Amino acid sequence: MELKLITYLVVGFTFALYFGIAIWARAGSTSEFYVAGKGVHPIANGMATAADWMSAASFISMAGLIAFLGYSGSVYLMGWTGGYVLMALLLAPYLRKFGKFTVPEFVGDRFYSQTARIVAVICLLVMSITYVIGQMRGVGIAFSRFLEVDITIGLIAGMGIVFVYAVLGGMKGITYTQIAQYVVMIFAYTVPAIFISLQLTGQPLPQLGLGSTINDGSGLYMLERLDLVLRDLGFAAYTTNANINMLNMVLLTMALMIGTAGLPHVIVRFFTVPRVRDARASAGWALVFIAILYTTAPAVGAMAMFNFAKTLHPAEIGTPDTALLVEERPQWMQTWEVTGLLAFEDKNEDGRIQYYNQNNPPQWAIEQDLQGNEMTRIDRDIMVLANPEIARLPNWVIALVAAGGIAAALSTAAGLLLAISSSISHDLLKGVFMPGISERNELRASRIAMGLAIVLAGYLGLNPPGFAAEVVALAFGLAASSLFPTLMMGIFFKRMNKEGAIAGMLAGLGSTLLYIFLYKGWLFLPGTNLFPDNADYWLFSIQPQSFGTIGALINVAVALTVSRMTAPPPEHIQHMVEDIRVPKGSGTAIGH
Hints:
The chain contains 24 helices and four strands. It is an all-alpha fold.
């Protein structure tokens, strides 16, 4: 059976499953729409949380970044997984104990201010829309490969799918759909990795294959062999930290960690379980489900890079004659060329595709006076989806990966869109401007807001400021600089007042947005950035993705300063903070 037909069958089956679940779990009340009626089992919620959190950036883009950055790409693994632990320990149980529908609702009540609630909504919208741009790009890439069309058409098709099942089911439908999507996603990620690990190293577990000897008779370890291949092409060794300096590695790791802990669309998942202890349990289960993919990603990235380099230089590298003949390029390359995400140019017209680092050309390229790297575009986001095709795996495995990539993008996009719509309908309309709105009209407003958010995210997804994981990193920086410090101080510092919280959020968000716009452009439109996006122009060499940590420090400094200069919170607010933080019944045995 040919690949296109198998892909249509596999992906079509998963779509039918998602739509069926959305219809079965259709939300009939605001409680079901926002928090699934608070009746989700901890294991099921853990699986849904994992799917919600492991976005297109995790499934599609992260291994691609690791493939091209090597050891430096581990910053994404450290930041995202560490941030989830931070969220599970320091935020989720306390916010669940507070018992509200949304993060802005907590901010508004904790800081006894509708203004604080509105500012939190603004922070949430800016962060979530930036984040969903990365997901829509992932949707577009997966659909463009699946339909074999340009990425623009693929993105529009993906928008339609998200609209149908996210608008229909709300949190209840999204929760059970995400459970199905997690199952699809994890099979789609691990099955090809097992095949490729067996193919290259003889090890069935990719985690072990990454540290094993390679099957080419050289006796070298996988990473050792990959280092040699990349050095022969003029690139830095895979296992070095040459692609990011220490300052940016520390700042980016921290931004990703505290940004993860401040993600409202993941935090709200802990509102869907019946009790506080269920929130803790679901956090633990989610970490188990996440670890399956995240421990596999380094092997996927390394093996994808090795197979890609060996495709373009099938013989031992060292002369231009080892390069791939144009007329012999494999079908997978021709297929991805249709999407516009992979392109080459035969600059010296020798009928071969020379691939090397033209900024540090190897000796053989210098001796032959070559005209530069002839792979003019290799979008990093294609590496995971193309990996099974590069390795010549069976068609059903390739189709499974396409379904997994779409599931990853759809699952997180749905969660983000729900966070956006609920902040508009519940926090702004019902909470501030129209407190008397009926439940039916509130549901209608939420669905309209979600539809508009899909259109906006799709439009911005056509002009993203980088690869999916880079766009997501920007969103995490915005969450790190705005919501996370406010939530932490709201829970653990009862002296923090509304003036400090509002000033801190505005200062953190504003400084980070300004920095991003200076180097990435206004609304990410090409050519609107004031400075080139390279280290020569960055402030103290801090890249935009890393600036969220600086924004968080600005937030805390401003919030603490303003709160000390203004009146403390009312007594009942301070008692409420103590009640949130202290377990029920603690101190009774000693008379406190």
